[in-house]
User: Which sequence fits this backbone?
């Protein structure tokens, strides 16, 4: 007998997908719609739809439980049939179900996809014969209590009212009423758990009476509150109604409420007493104005600008050295000295969190990565980043803001950058600071003195805000192509980091690791086009001549566009670009060979020049014209300083003529023509002295000059060689042109520490102290012994500031 019972129970057990409901209890014979957002619940609906559309719905005990287990669910639920499913989005589904059978939860399998429940249907026990009268009395009491409930809650649907009033079925009422009345889900679950119809009706009646009592108390409380409303409150409501009427009629707009809102926001800022008082005065002014007046709009804009500033919002610095090095190496190839300088800065900030006044100036030719370095610093430190370009800014108000007395006044660029960054300690990049301009409206470089002074920017006052804002936590980074054009007081406030020109090998690696993958992705050619190493070198050598890599990237993009055209036309599926194909795609080489002496020649010496975009080779030619009158002609767009160097060279040649086999009276019978090629480019500076003297002595003596040697240095009247600036850029130019030996002033030997290691490996640097040493190495004489090369020194010195570009030129001047 026991075995038969077990078999019968086992047959009644059902395995169904289950959904745990939050704050909802479903009853049999009721249609309910609800939204499902949990992944497992959506999967359970899909599984039910694929099977027989039946699903087990059970309420969970705690609404905030995301992954409910068996202990988190109630014992009784409902087997429901899914009528309709509407997918609103990927993570939200609307479901319409109809409850069918009350069931008890036996087991729960919380699988990976959805909940699987083992349930047994359990019907409500019927009414015993001796309890029928009691049940009928309970039904009547329920309907009477429901009528009282309606008097407190008239918003119940007419359909619900009709179904309850017109039905006399105890079972129907025990399921329909709790399903459609506003009871707490815990109370509804108590009714669903009840297995006897009599007990269910008794609990439902008790629950309904409790709700009527509570609603009666709420109505009494509302009446008491309304009765106690005093005259002032009634006047307030009447006044508000009048304001609304005035707004509708367009007569006036009361701004007092708006001013109160601003006043609350100002107090919440917790500023210093003076600033708070000033802002509150503006709120009071706004309250006294008509909303349609122009002045009220000005005050609103001012208060909005002040409230938008991140007064007390700051990010936490990430000063981890390993993370910083990883970011810098990922974004930039080479620039080792620059990276080390940035890591040193982060290390100091890690040891001293209160360090102030670190204002960095990145100086270098265009396209070497100054702006991207600033981005990387912000990423290393996990700070917000804002950029403002200063190129061509000539109005002081662009920096400090306009006073509010002007129409259209607005905050300056500094405050705007802070507002955009939404942080009191962002990294702000002041781009192209060497290109600031000044006119009758003021000098913006002078306005930056306060911004970039750690002692002053703690209380920076924008003309528009007119209240102090602390800029001491901001890390300012400036960029410049030519530091010599930055005003001295402004330059003195910045920590200068120089970014050198890229070598040929560095450009190749940058193109291979960064530029080419980026442009392959941008042009949709990943996996379809490859550029060989020889092709990249062909582009670098034949089509770009620059200190940075901007033109290199543009040229690579041009090659890829032509490849994309061939692939789109069906001419090829994959293309591997070789060095020979580069010329076919781009045409003849655009970079022409630099005019320098390529063989030992008389009267031609190779000099080195500095420009704002890197170093350049600058040869000097001297021609001796017989049957002359001692006239000296100087051409090549030379500046005054360079012309004076030519006069010094002539004087030195006259004094030391006999040492080089030149007769003293030769100068009387000849004319001299000194020329620096590329006459359209302005040239100035004292460091061409050694080059001019060498070319002059060679032309007069007939001794050729070594073509594989370049030189730089200023000379004195007695033949001493003085130090120069820009050695790093000049040495890069010699390296680029394949010069093997460079003569430098002896006092510049310490500057070799700053020269790139690759350059020092390929180029011999010979320090010289006098012109006689220069001529000894430069003039090609039989039996000459080359001097020992200097590869570097342990300590670097600052550049001598005597190599500045000439002022007043539109084209970038070459500084010898």
Assistant:
């Amino acid at each position: 007998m026991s075995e038969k019972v077990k078999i019968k129970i086992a047959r009644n057990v059902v395995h169904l997908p289950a959904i745990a409901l939050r704050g909802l209890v479903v009853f049999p014979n009721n249609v309910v719609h609800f939204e499902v957002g949990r992944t497992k619940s959506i999967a359970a609906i899909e599984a039910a739809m694929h099977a027989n559309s039946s699903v087990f719905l059970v309420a969970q005990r705690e609404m905030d439980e995301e992954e409910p287990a068996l202990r988190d669910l109630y014992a009784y639920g409902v087997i429901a049939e899914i009528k309709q499913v509407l997918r609103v989005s990927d993570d939200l589904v609307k479901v319409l179900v109809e409850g069918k059978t009350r069931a008890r939860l036996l087991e729960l399998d919380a699988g990976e996809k959805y909940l699987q429940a083992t349930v047994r249907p359990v019907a409500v026990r019927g009414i015993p014969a001796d309890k029928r009268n009691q049940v009928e009395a309970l039904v009547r009491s329920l309907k009477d209590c429901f009528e009282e409930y309606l008097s407190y809650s008239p918003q119940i649907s007419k359909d619900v009212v009709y179904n309850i009033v017109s039905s006399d079925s105890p079972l129907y009422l025990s399921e329909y009423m709790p399903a459609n009345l506003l009871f707490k889900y815990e109370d509804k679950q108590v009714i669903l758990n009840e297995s006897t119809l009599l007990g269910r009706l008794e609990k439902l009646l008790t629950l309904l009476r409790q709700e009527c009592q509570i609603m009666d108390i709420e109505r009494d409380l509302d009446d008491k509150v309304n009765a106690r409303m005093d005259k002032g409150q009634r006047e307030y409501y009447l006044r508000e109604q009048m304001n609304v009427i005035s707004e509708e009629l367009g007569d006036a707009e009361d701004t007092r409420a708006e001013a109160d809102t601003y006043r609350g926001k100002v107090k919440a800022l917790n500023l210093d007493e003076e600033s708070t008082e000033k802002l509150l005065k503006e709120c009071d002014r706004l309250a006294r104005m008509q909303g349609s007046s122009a002045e009220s709009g000005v005050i609103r804009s001012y208060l909005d600008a002040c409230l938008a500033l991140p007064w007390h919002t700051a990010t936490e610095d990430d000063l981890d050295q390993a993370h910083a090095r990883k970011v810098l190496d990922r974004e930039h190839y080479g620039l080792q000295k620059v990276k080390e300088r940035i890591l040193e800065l982060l290390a100091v900030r890690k040891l001293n969190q209160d360090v102030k006044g670190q204002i960095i100036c990145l100086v270098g030719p265009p396209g070497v990565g100054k702006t991207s370095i600033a981005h990387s610093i912000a990423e290393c430190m996990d700070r917000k980043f804002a950029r403002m370009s200063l190129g061509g800014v000539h109005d002081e108000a662009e920096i400090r803001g306009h006073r509010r007395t002007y129409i259209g006044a607005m905050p300056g660029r500094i405050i705007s950058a802070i507002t955009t960054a939404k942080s009191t300690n962002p990294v702000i990049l002041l781009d192209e600071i060497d290109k600031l301009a000044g006119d009758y409206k003021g000098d913006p470089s002078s306005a930056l003195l306060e911004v970039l002074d750690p002692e002053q920017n703690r209380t920076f006052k924008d003309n528009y805000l007119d209240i102090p804002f602390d800029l001491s936590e901001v890390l300012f980074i400036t960029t410049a192509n030519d530091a010599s054009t930055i005003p001295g007081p402004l330059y003195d406030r910045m920590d200068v980091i120089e970014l050198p020109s890229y070598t040929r090998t560095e450009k190749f690696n940058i193109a291979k690791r960064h530029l080419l993958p980026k442009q392959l992705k941008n042009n949709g050619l990943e996996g379809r086009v490859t550029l060989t190493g020889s092709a990249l070198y062909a582009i670098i050598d034949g089509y770009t001549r620059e200190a940075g890599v901007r033109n290199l990237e543009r040229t690579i993009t041009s090659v890829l566009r032509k490849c994309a055209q061939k692939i789109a036309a069906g001419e090829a599926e994959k293309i591997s670009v070789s060095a020979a194909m580069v010329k076919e795609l781009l045409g003849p080489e655009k970079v022409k060979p630099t005019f320098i002496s390529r063989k030992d020649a008389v009267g031609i010496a190779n000099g080195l020049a500095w420009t704002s975009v890197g170093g350049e080779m600058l040869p000097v030619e001297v021609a001796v014209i017989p049957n002359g009158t001692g006239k000296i002609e100087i051409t090549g767009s030379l500046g005054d300083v360079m012309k004076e160097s030519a006069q010094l060279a002539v004087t030195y040649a006259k004094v030391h003529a006999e040492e080089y086999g030149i007769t003293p009276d030769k100068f009387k019978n000849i004319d001299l023509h000194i020329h620096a090629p590329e006459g359209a480019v302005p040239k100035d500076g004292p460091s061409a002295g050694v080059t001019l003297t060498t070319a002059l002595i060679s032309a007069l003596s007939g001794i050729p000059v070594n073509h594989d040697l370049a030189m730089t240095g200023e000379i004195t009247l007695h033949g001493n060689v003085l130090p120069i600036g820009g050695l790093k850029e000049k040495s890069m130019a010699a390296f680029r042109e394949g010069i093997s030996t460079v003569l430098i002033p002896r006092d510049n030997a310490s500057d070799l520490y700053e020269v790139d290691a690759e350059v020092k490996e390929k180029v011999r640097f010979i320090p010289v102290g006098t012109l006689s040493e220069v001529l000894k190495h430069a003039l090609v004489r039989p039996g000459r012994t080359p001097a020992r090369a200097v590869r570097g020194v342990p300590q670097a010195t600052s550049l001598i500031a005597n190599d500045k570009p000439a002022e007043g030129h539109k084209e970038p001047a070459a500084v010898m």
Summary: The CA atoms of residues 158 and 164 lie 10 Å apart.
